[in-house]
Amino acid sequence: MNLQSNDFELFGLTQQFAQERGALDARWKALQAQAHPDKFAAQGAAAQRLAMQWSVRINEAYQRLKNPLQRAAYLCELQGAPIQAHSNTAMATAFLMQQIEWREALDDARSVDDLEALAASVDSTQNDLLTLCAQTLDDRQDYPAAVPLVRSLMFIEKFRHDLDARFDALS
Amino acid sequence: MALLQISEPGQSPNPHERRIAVGIDLGTTHSLVAAVRNGVAECLPDATGAVLLPSVVRYLDAQRRQIGQEALQQQSADPGNTIASVKRLMGRGLADIADAARLPYALVDAPGMVKVRTIAGEKSPVEVSAEILATLRFRAEDSFNDDIFGAVITVPAYFDDAQRQATKDAAQLAGLHVLRLINEPTAAAIAYGLDNASEGVYAVYDLGGGTFDISILRLSAGVFEVLATGGDSALGGDDYDRALADWIVLQSSTQVQGLEDQALLLQAARACKEALSDEDIAPVELSLEAGRIDLSVNRAQFEATTQPLTARTLQAVRKALRDARLQTTDIQGVVLVGGSTRMPQVRAAVADFFEQAPLTNLNPDEVVALGAAIQANQLAGNNPSGNLLLLDVIPLSLGIETMGGLVERIVPRNQTIPTAMAQDFTTYQDGQTALALHVVQGERDLVADCRSLARFELRGIPPMVAGAARIRVTFTVDADGLLHVAAREQGSGVEAQIDVKPSYGLSDDQIARMLQDSFSTAQVDMRARALVEARVDAQRLVLATQSALKADGDLLSAQERADVDAAIDALLASAQGEDAAQIEAISKQLAQVTEAFAAQRMNRGIAQALSGHTLDSLQDSFKT
Question: Residues of CATH 2.60.34.10 domain(s) within chain B?
Answer without folding.
Answer: 398-509
